[in-house]
Amino acid sequence: MQTPRLGPVASGDRLTVMDMLRGAALLGVFAMNVEWFSRPMQEMGSGIPATATGLDHAVAWAVHVLVAGKFWTMFSLLFGMGFVLMADRIAAAGRSVERVFARRMAALFVFGLLHIALLWPGDILHTYAMAGLLLMVMRGLAPVWQLVAGLALYFGMAAFYLANAGLLLVVPEAMLDDMRAQFAASAASAAVIYPDGGFLAVTGRRLLDYIQIGLQGQLVLVPMAAGVFLVGSWLMRGGWLRDPVAHRRFWWRLLAIALPPGLLFTAAGVAVGTSFSGGIVDPRAIASAGLMLLGALPLSLAYVAVLVLAWSSRPGARVLGVLAPAGRMALTHYLAQSLICSLLFYGYGFGLWGEWGRAEQTGLVLVVFALQVAVSHVWLAGHRYGPMEWLWRWATYGRRPQWRRAAAPA
Residue 114 phi/psi, 5° resolution? Predict the structure, then answer.
């Protein structure tokens, strides 16, 4: 038998339901991220700004409770699912899964570092690259043990948050006040440089914010993302997404299992509070974040189940299918969202940092995403991949993939 040639998956062989889910996750991630192009990252963990009122407060509450933490986990589930498909194709071509996937993760890591330096310090790509290597190491586990290991990693990190909240209760108040003062000074500096600084000044501030906030966060984010990757791998290896119509019973069961704990832990996090003056050194803020994380993965699984169930009906597939082209260009659009926001909110662009409330920011998200969906349909009519997807595949497979579609015969 002839060995299949290794390369990017053909358009006709794609699981369109995954592209749809990726498009939905892209919208949720944008709605969450946009806030941190106009607010100091030192305030992460502070919840809803105390100054938000009226419609801004209502939108901020909805995003904080229903969106934040739920859609990066959906993206992570899809990453784990995609890994299974890619590993199967690599193995069928007689190539080393480890070598090809390591090259793919190395390219993603570089994209992430450039994203941090040139656009935004809240990048997730380099986190995925590091967590992807952990997924590759554990890919030989049986599906049920991937599920067990994935849940243990994710919920273990959420429990770590709760333990930290307890530790903060015994830290001397003078030490906490000193930490708060340092974060406040850093946030005040960011609030001056981002709206008024030139490109070099803003770039320096981005790198400093990543070192102070983002780098430390990798200690939790990398194992947590790896855990969600493993859950996604279990979902794909179970075969339930390959034919959603035939497996509607599974998706209903997943919804029934995941939704109650997701709602329970999220409600508990909201009960602790949604706005905290002390930020990440406030024990209540850390406790609330830990509870919200405990609810985020179950709610994300419930969101996936609802979307897949809707997709499995003909009207639902027709409506949700609009998102699929955007999902196929998720990397391009993710970076484009950062480019647009950096030009709007930073000093070397329009300098709108701090001037738009949460409602205006969410309106921007909806407009930009609608344009991205429209652009995706037009672009993919003449091209096989988005620009960044094409570059990523080139780096992964070691040869330049065909970009444009062949012209239809007259």
Answer: -65, -40
